[in-house]
Amino acid sequence: MKVLVAVKRVIDYNVKIRVKPDHSDVDLTNVKMAMNPFCEIAVEEAVRLKEKGVASEVVAVTIGPKAAQEQLRTALALGADRAIHVETDDKVESLTAAKLLKQVVDDEQPGLTILGKQSIDTDNNQTGQMLAALAGMGQGTFASEVQVEGDDVQVTREIDGGLQTVALKLPAVITTDLRLNEPRYAKLPDIMKAKKKPIDVKSPDDMGVAVASSLSVLKVESPAERQGGTKVASVDELVDKLKNEAKVIA
Amino acid sequence: MSILVIAEHHNGQLADSTAHVVAAAQAIGGDIDILVAGENVAGIAETAAKLTGVAKVKVADDSVYAHQLAEPVAELIAGLAGDYSHVLAAASTQGKNVLPRVAALKDVAALSEVVGVESPDTFLRPIYAGNAIATVQSSDALKVLTVRTTAFDAVDATGSAGVEAISATVENTLSRFVGEELASSDRPELGSARVVVSGGRGMGNGENFKLLDGIADKLGAAIGASRAAVDAGFVPNDMQVGQTGKIVAPELYIAVGISGAIQHLAGMKDAKIIVAINKDEEAPIFQVADYGLVGDLFEVLPELESKL
User: Fold this and answer.
1) What's the pTM value of the predicted model, to 2 decimals?
2) Which of A46, A147, B47, B253 could pair with A3 as two cysteines, CB 3.0-4.6 Å apart?
């Protein structure tokens, strides 16, 4: 079974973001970029499926500018066999990403497609579900455990209040949650080897998908700052303030 | 305009979140219908019909909707969506699972975690873990939104909408429910609790989380945790408050032994009052706390419990 894993280039999760002075967007100039953390978990899961003998080949795919090949090289260093780069400099919304990935799924016919549940830039949490809908597949979102059994995959999902397990008919789409696994670090020899692995570059035009969006961002602002910093000296003072000043307890 | 609100329900009960989503629908304006999909959900539909401002409750009661799996529920909603300008659900794991699938079936964009309504086509939503707020306009004829429930005050239950059964059903050959493990607790849900008490890595171990119980009991609070405490294995992930866990906005948030990483702040900085208890007076949590108490939590917690 082939496993397709989608990765996204995003701002590094340690970077403190700044809104541009003209409020058009977040300022990404000279900011450290990295693979989206949930995508790292997706790559790790795909590679583990290969190590377990469940997957025969792991194909990584990304959509984005030329620089996004860095993230594909990371995926290749972590154990993906080859990669596909859908190259575009345009901003790609979830639905367009799902349409592009649907084309890749049609070409590659993977048994499983694994994505991060959300990217830490737009925080949409949509692409996996949309891809599953377009491809007519079942979806195992927010996965904390994945087990392939015959023609099914059992996915344990992190839901509000606990865990839910569903069985999906293969082929299926899975999105990863935090506790699915702990991603490994790429070793230097693997990073060297990854440089020789093939990356197939395509354009959205070649794939017959228009990069368009019905959403327009009118402005981006910083959230209201919280005024904190007051200290209390004792538990008595704390209880008094909560009762008589903040009036949040009786 | 007409708006379809997808009811959320668990164990035969309408979830509180639905009343918040109806409030968001009222902010958009227009006729508001509710869809209750599930198995044996007549009682839930009756409760939903009482929510203020609701015109009609549509009920899809069929075994195929049991456990509200995304595949059949999204197909059901997509089939109904033609009559509506907006489809709304809570930005819960349920809403986020189903609504993007609906949007793709209808070939429209989806907007996640909406925290404000500027006009019927323009919405506010947090990006970059709440470190920026985007104002986004949608030109789609159908707008599909998940709503952050803490951003909208719940509507009352003073209504008496009509209830109407939907006979059309769908088939589901893609997915099957296997099982569920829900944490049982007498405490309020994290997402909707008036008071939340959370512990971090400073708690030391999972056993010490019991120190929070007494305080939570006295305040009627839910108990949460930072990602550091979850990653350290102290408590399960469903207790996690933060960018990668639950977003809460209670009236009172008490952070115990939590340093205040950006990722945690993203999940709780909309609380009305924040209390921080930490022995490190330089901890970033104190910068956002309305009341900070520097001290050893193992001494502070028992004293606080006795004085509440």
Assistant:
1) 0.91
2) A46
